[in-house]
Write a structure and sequence with these properties.
The complex is a heterotrimer of chains A (307), B (357) and C (509). In chain A, 74% of the residues lie in helices and 0% in strands. Chain A has 15 helices and no strands. Chain A has helices spanning 2-31, 39-57, 60-84, 89-108, 126-129, 133-137, 142-160, 162-172, 174-179, 184-210, 222-232, 237-260, 266-270, 272-285, 288-294. Chain A is globular, with a radius of gyration of 19 Å. Chain B contains 15 helices and two strands. By secondary structure, chain B is mainly alpha-helical. Chain B has a two-stranded antiparallel ribbon with strand order 1-2. In chain C, helix 11 (356-364) packs across helix 12. In chain C, strand 19, helix 14 and strand 20 form a beta-alpha-beta unit. By secondary structure, chain C is α/β, with parallel strands linked by helices. Classes of the chains: A mainly alpha (307), B mainly alpha (357), C alpha/beta (509). Chains in contact: A-B, A-C, B-C. The interface between B and C is medium-sized, with 27 and 42 residues.
């Protein structure tokens, strides 16, 4: 039983980490009033950039940095088109996803089925050897902890710092923020690029730690799930953690049930996390007034200065 | 410093020139990428975009590839005009193929005159059911259709995998994940004998024409346009948003389902684990390249079909992965969206504004 | 706060700003002396807002020089304006609904040093100047007057030398306005000049020592307002003899009611909206009922509940021409004889990116065979739009012009024409002349009165008390989602109305 519990908790946390990273980034982006639906594309770019760099240089650290940089570059592209050129954000996000899939598939064609260095797990001596608690809490890879730290920082920053106040203000009423002299576009660019960095990192986590290899479309819709998580959490950071863990648990269970050899076809079990996402979205969205209460008022609205 | 200045009204010139400019920029960017990859840009672009057409049966391959893209793109152009963001047409395409194909597999001995119309109906119904669920979740539970339609695309794909690896697997198929071949009666009728030019090639432009008339000439179409441009004004006029969402999802889903059925009965001949090579996302680009006008979707569909042929040609003739299709489609959509700023803005060279003292 | 340097505080010459298709400011001059309350007068669209936005650094001028405190400056952004000592209170407040009072004020301050001990300073300034505020309340719960006080306190925290007030009393009750004048006079006496933008001539005469008058983007006069009559000021401002609408003969008292509300109670669908509570009224054919009130007291909800955009639930709460209509949508209410003109033109009453012909179809699709068998008859639709354009003197290039190419006044005339030409039995109009020039306002008022003369029941919702008094036979006040009992216009004074607007909803007039 304790073996199952450990496996369950460890796998859940690992499966939740890329979702959490990408969702924290998207949360910041949406808080300033921008809807970037290209998370999937940024994650794929991060995944291949991280994997290729780690493979070529032999350094996981460089791989992680490359994953972040790739996500940022993609986000910048999104910024130019949707912020500077004021294109529809929904459509631009889709373009980013399409481009990211193509780009990662093209670059990744050479890397299918080969190994790369993997992100090591931390080992904290005696702490890591504790039963149950050790492997779950003290022997994960560093990005798992980084994701949690980033979540805490973003939650604290948005709520308690002046910078966070400015970000919330820009997402609440961009014209008023502009009238007060805040550089709305600049702030939005910064948030979008930050979101890209985290999405790229999430992709890097996929290809360097979670399933250390490259496969075409390996994120399998996780970017979209991350976008859904932000709505699920009603733009409150700590609820992202709840959502990411639930989703991670669902993914682990769908694999576990397959391994048990229950008479349920594996293809249908694999669909479970997506069905779960739909169910959660429906449950959450039902209360339209509550969604509106938390939703940044400027979400998806282009900002245009006159004069 | 280059600055955009609002024009005050939409420019009729750039309405048509912007997509052309986007195409040109995409071509130039493609050339640059090839140059970086160490390939001669001119010859590579030629191999990708011109050579496939000059081959024997090149035009035939083009229209066959374009038919599903046009059918799906036409439906999307309607939905997007109403701000209904159906991005899961792959799922509707697949469910249409499953439902219609299922009918064909269930009655292998039925006569063609009875069977094929029934399959068409089942295909369209499958797509409409898939789209309808998304509409219902949006209207009844306020669930974002972007996310739900995409999630259903993943779910439908797993359903397909289960069917062709499980209950519907061809017992004579040596264990391959595929169904039996459709009977002759269950094949899409050919417009030209001995070719792949099937019924769908005629249906696609007809659907485009029908939806164009609907969108531009009828009160129902006017309601879609008002809803997309000013939802508040639609409410003021008494146009019911929920009904329009239903119609948009049913039409775009139904057309995608039809496209799926025509694709499996017209070219594939059976159900396998992958029916759509990313048509769902490509159809989005088709819709935008066609300026969200059903008639514009026809040439746009042909052009995007060419990028698929080009991708295959690149793989065969140049040893490039056919993923470059996706890259160019993405770049094209970026340029299309970016160039649209010229519709309502003009580009001006201006001296820098006053600087802080 | 007084300054040793001689000469004016602010001197602007040749200020010019060109927007596409509109020269908003054409070589405008403005001089503000120290300790002065200076009025900037002009009607909507005269260029006042553009000029002050250039002072505050929101908009960059194309040409012109600014001399501030004796030195030539270029004001690049609001932060720099604040550093120079310029504060501004906007007409449409630049506040953040979901943030608290203190957070809103903190956002308006330039540096971290200024935010030290902010709560205490907010409290001190607000008591000192009679501007009561609670720092921890969230803005969306506050009244319009309280919101304005946030903006003023935000400016005062920076010890400004010049405070710009853009149409400050348009959102205040008469009592609140008097209190504001007291604060402004005190500030001027302490050395802070005030630039007071308004088109309300009475208050300018009472408050300001000097007035600069603008018309069509230019200076037209400078004077001491106390030495002029209201009529003289108005004639300079509008450059025409003021014709008043022809008075209507008194209403025939026995007409049957065409619009009846019976205890209409509606929950607002908007996040920070106002619920309507127990609203009852009756408007007879030929009668105009005016509903006055400060913005945000349920006017928009009332408009939407009447037009059918919000359903009222029980059918019997709304009667249109004798037919219960509470459960009907906008389409069905139009069939029952109702026509509606909402406050917001852009994207509500009109689709700005569509042509005038398409906009004519927007509410007219049920009339005159514009649509047959589901197909739009383009010829008839264009003809309908052209009839509106010619009957209501809409200045435009034609029925195929996009709605956004029209000025506010012309678009409003088009929208009023669209509804009036449908010959409604009941017309409901919210803010008929908001942001509209004087000429168009007059035309709109005449069209409304003519419709009433023909026997229609008209309900006018307006925040402009003068407009309500000009148009209405009966008046009522909406405050906090409740409506006072309607009374004949002749029997109430502005003071009575002001008291009701301040929230004394249950008091009998």
């Amino acid at each position: 039983m304790s073996f199952f519990l450990v496996a369950f908790l460890v796998s859940t946390i690992a499966a939740a980490t890329p979702l959490l990273l990408a969702a924290v980034g998207e949360l910041v982006v949406e808080k300033v009033g921008v809807l970037n639906l290209g998370v999937e594309g940024m994650m794929l770019s991060g995944a291949i950039a991280g994997f290729a760099t780690a493979h070529e240089t032999g350094s996981v650290g460089l791989g992680v940095l490359a994953a972040i940089a790739a996500g940022m570059a993609m986000a910048l592209l999104f910024g130019v088109i949707s912020l500077s050129l004021q294109a529809n954000q929904t459509a631009t996000g889709l373009a980013l996803t399409i481009f990211g899939r193509g780009f990662s598939a093209l670059v990744g064609a050479r890397y299918v089925g080969i190994p790369a260095p993997t992100l090591p797990k931390l080992h904290l001596g005696a702490l890591s050897d504790l039963p149950v608690v050790g492997p779950v809490l003290f022997a994960q890879d560093p990005l798992v902890y980084l994701a949690l730290v980033l979540l805490g920082l973003v939650a604290w920053g948005l709520r308690s710092t002046h910078l966070g106040l400015i970000l919330r203000a820009v997402g609440d009423q961009h014209n008023a923020a502009h009238a007060l002299g805040y550089p709305v576009l600049g702030i939005r660019y910064a948030a979008v690029v930050f979101g890209g960095a985290l999405a790229g990192l999430a992709g890097g986590y996929m290809s360097l730690a979670y399933t250390p290899m490259w496969a075409q479309d390996m994120t399998a819709g996780r970017g979209w799930v991350a976008v859904a998580l932000v709505t699920f959490a009603a733009w409150r950071p700590f609820w992202l953690l709840v959502g990411a863990w639930c989703f991670g648990a669902l993914m682990y269970l769908s694999l576990y049930v397959q391994a048990l050899g229950l008479p349920v076809p594996s293809a249908l079990l694999s669909a479970l996390p997506y069905i779960g996402t739909v169910v959660v979205l429906v449950l959450i969205s039902r209360d339209a007034r509550r969604i509106r209460l938390h939703r940044p008022a400027m979400l998806g609205q282009p900002f245009q200065t006159r004069g | 410093m280059l600055k955009f200045e609002p024009r005050g009204a939409e420019s009729p010139f750039w309405r048509y020139a912007a997509p052309v400019l986007a195409l040109l920029l995409t071509g130039v960017t493609a050339g640059l990428i090839f140059a970086v990859m160490g390939r001669p840009p001119g010859r590579t672009v030629y191999t990708l975009l011109v050579a496939p057409l000059l081959q024997q049966d090149g035009l035939e391959a083009l229209v066959v590839k374009a038919a599903p893209l046009i059918l799906m793109g036409v439906g999307l152009s309607l939905a997007y005009r109403a701000n209904v963001w159906n991005i899961g047409t792959d799922g509707q395409f697949t469910l249409g193929a499953i439902c219609g194909g299922g009918v064909g597999l269930a009655f292998p001995d039925a006569p063609a005159w009875a069977l094929y119309p029934l399959m068409l109906l089942a295909g369209a119904a499958g797509g409409m059911a898939s789209g309808g669920v998304v509409a219902w979740l949006r209207v009844r539970f306020n669930a974002n259709e972007i996310l739900t339609s995409l999630m259903f695309a993943y779910i439908t794909q797993y359903l397909l995998v289960w069917l062709v690896t499980g209950p519907w697997r061809d017992p004579m198929g040596f264990g391959f994940p595929q169904t039996a071949l459709f009977s002759d009666a269950a094949q899409a009728p050919r417009l030209i004998a001995e070719t792949n030019v099937h019924l769908g090639i005629a249906l696609a432009p007809l659907a485009a024409l029908a939806l164009w008339v609907m969108l531009e000439k009828t009160l129902l179409g006017f309601q879609f346009r008002v809803l997309g441009q000013a939802a508040r004004a639609a409410r003021f006029a008494g146009f019911r948003e929920t009904r329009l969402i239903w119609v948009a999802m049913l039409i775009s889903g139904g057309l995608a389902g039809l496209a799926g059925l025509l694709e499996v009965t017209g070219t594939l001949g059976q159900l396998t684990t992958t029916l759509s090579p990313g048509y769902g996302f490509t159809a989005i680009i088709v819709a935008f390249l066609g300026r969200l006008s059903p008639l514009g979707v026809v040439p746009a569909g042909l052009l995007l079909a060419l990028t698929y042929l080009g991708g295959d040609a690149a793989q065969i003739n140049l040893g490039l992965p056919n993923a470059i299709t996706g890259i160019f489609q993405g770049i094209l959509l970026f340029y299309l969206l970016g160039c649209d700023i010229l519709l309502n803005n003009r580009l001006r060279w201006r001296r820098r504004g006053p600087v802080p003292t | 706060m007084t300054h040793p340097l001689p000469g004016p505080l602010l001197q602007m010459t040749g200020m010019t700003k060109q927007y596409p298709g509109c020269l908003a400011n054409d070589a405008v001059n403005l001089t503000v002396e120290r300790n002065q309350i200076h009025a900037l007068l002009g009607e909507n669209g005269a260029g006042k807002s553009t000029l002050v936005k250039m002072i505050y650094g929101v908009t960059r001028p194309d040409a012109g020089t600014v001399i501030w405190d004796g030195a030539k400056v270029t004001i690049a952004n609001p932060h720099q304006a604040q550093r120079l000592g310029i504060g501004m209170v906007f007409q449409h407040f630049s506040l953040f609904e979901t943030l608290t009072v203190a957070e809103n004020i903190a956002l308006g301050l330039g540096s971290a040093a200024e935010r030290v001990g902010l709560r205490e300073r907010i409290l001190r300034i607000s008591t000192e100047y009679g501007l009561p505020l609670e720092p921890d309340r969230v803005v969306h719960d506050l009244s319009v007057g309280e919101r304005q006080r946030i903006e003023i306190v935000r400016c005062l925290l920076q010890n400004p030398k010049l405070l710009i007030m853009d149409e400050p009393t348009s959102v205040l009750t008469p009592n609140e306005a008097q209190a504001l004048f007291g604060t402004l006079r005190r500030l001027a006496a302490e050395g802070c000049s005030i630039l007071y933008i308004s088109h309300k001539l009475e208050e300018v005469r009472a408050l300001c020592s000097v007035a600069t008058i603008m018309r069509q983007g230019r200076n037209v006069a400078s004077c001491r307002p106390a030495e002029k009559t209201v009529r003289e000021l108005a004639e300079i401002m509008i450059a025409a003899d003021l014709s008043t609408p022809t008075p209507r003969p008194a209403r025939v008292g026995t007409a049957r009611p065409r619009l009846v509300l019976d205890r209409l109670t509606v929950r607002s669908p908007h996040q920070f909206g106002t619920d309507l509570k127990d609203i009852s009224l009756s408007v007879a054919g030929g009668e105009i009922l005016g509903i006055a009130g400060i913005a945000g007291n349920g006017q928009n909800e009332l408009m939407d509940a009447l037009s059918g955009e919000i359903l009222a639930g029980r059918p019997e709460t709304i009667w249109l021409d004798g037919q219960p209509a509470g459960h009907l949508g906008p389409r069905e209410r139009r069939l029952a004889g109702g026509c509606f003109i909402p406050e917001e033109r852009n994207g509500h009453g009109a689709v700005t990116t569509m042509t005038l012909a398409e906009n004519a179809l927007l509410s007219g699709f049920g009339q005159g065979g514009l649509v047959r068998f589901g197909l739009i008859d383009v010829g008839r639709t264009v003809a309908f739009a052209e009839r509106i354009i010619s009957r209501f003197d809409v200045r435009t290039s034609g029925a195929q012009a996009e709605a956004r190419s029209l000025s506010g006044g012309n678009l409003q005339k088009f929208l009023v024409g669209r509804e009036v030409l449908q010959d409604p039995g009941v017309l409901i109009i919210n803010q008929p002349t908001w942001g509209v020039d004087a000429g168009a306002a007059l035309a709109i008022h005449e069209a409304i009165m003519a419709l009433a003369r023909q026997g229609a029941a008209v309900l006018v919702i307006s925040q402009d008390l003068d407009e309500v008094f000009v148009l209405a036979d009966q008046v009522a006040v909406i405050a906090g989602g409740r409506l006072s009992a309607p009374v004949p216009t002749g029997s109430v004074t502005v003071e009575d109305m002001g008291r009701l607007m301040g929230g004394a909803a249950h008091a009998e007039v």
